[in-house]
Amino acid sequence: MKLYMHAAACSLSPHIICRELGLDIELVQVDRQTHRTSDGEDYLAINGNGYVPALMLDDGKVLTEGPAIVQFLADSVPEGAALLPEVGNIRRNEVQSYLNFITAELHKPMVLLFNPIYSSVHGEVRALISKRLTWLNRRLAGPYLTGDAFTVADAYLFVCLNWSPWTNIDLKQWPALHGFMARVAARPKVREALQAEDLEAFDADGVYFAPHAYLASSGRTGEPVRP
């Protein structure tokens, strides 16, 4: 399988799930400007929307949209039931509910904060995100979103919240979520994924990660991630 990705982007979520499940995956970088892939393909011919992630299966079929990809990955092997309960188990629906919440109420609004076109409404967007994070902070059921078990929704939340420093959101005002970030960042397979994407830890707590070039352009310094 091939996972089309950008370092530290939302494609990090299915990358983490592949590592957690021990799936053999080939990472293919996509240039944001040219839409050319690191193996010479036209990414727009793979995903006409141009954004990542996309998962190409061994038979050439392509699946897009992160929440759908992580569910497919979890369902592809028996071990995946630990990350996404089986059909008929209400816990599966709980995980799917969080996937929908994250993609609609956190992921998309946070992306707007990276885009200067929407700068006139950044204040309102940030206020909406803060409201959602307050709700989520109160809802955190345990070490992870649905309790003791790490699921595909936790990987997705970790990736979105990892963008907090770049969107001027101080996650420390939500202690449960800040603690969540530290727990996920410490998982061995998560660290393997971070290292594979050449990300660096740059905050004192070591719970936020970014590519070296991104850090350098922002006048920050970081430390390479090691499993």
Give a brief rundown of this model.
It is an enzyme of class 2 (transferase). This protein has 227 residues and is α+β, with helices and mostly antiparallel strands.
In words, what does this structure look like?
It is a single chain. The protein is 44% helix and 10% strand. The chain is globular. Helix 5 crosses helix 6. By secondary structure, the protein is an alpha+beta fold. The chain has two domains: 2-82, Glutaredoxin (3-Layer(aba) Sandwich), CATH 3.40.30; 90-218, Up-down Bundle (Glutathione S-transferase Yfyf (Class Pi), Chain A, domain 2), CATH 1.20.1050.10. It has eight helices and seven strands, in the order E-H-E-E-E-H-H-H-H-H-H-E-E-H-E. The model has no long low-confidence stretch (mean pLDDT 96).
Number of domains: 2
**Strand order, largest beta sheet:** 2-1-3-4
- Indicate the mean pLDDT: 96
Beta strand %: 5-15%
The end-to-end span amounts to 23 Å
What is the CATH third-level topology name of the largest domain? Glutathione S-transferase Yfyf (Class Pi), Chain A, domain 2
Question: Helicity range of the residues?
Answer: 40-55%
Estimated radius of gyration: 17 Å
- Total number of strands: 7
Structural class: alpha+beta
Tally of helical segments: 8
* Overall outline: globular
Poorly predicted tracts of residues: none
Order of helices and strands: EHEEEHHHHHHEEHE
The main sheet comes to: 4 strands, mixed
CATH architecture classification name of the largest domain: Up-down Bundle
CATH class of the largest domain: Mainly Alpha
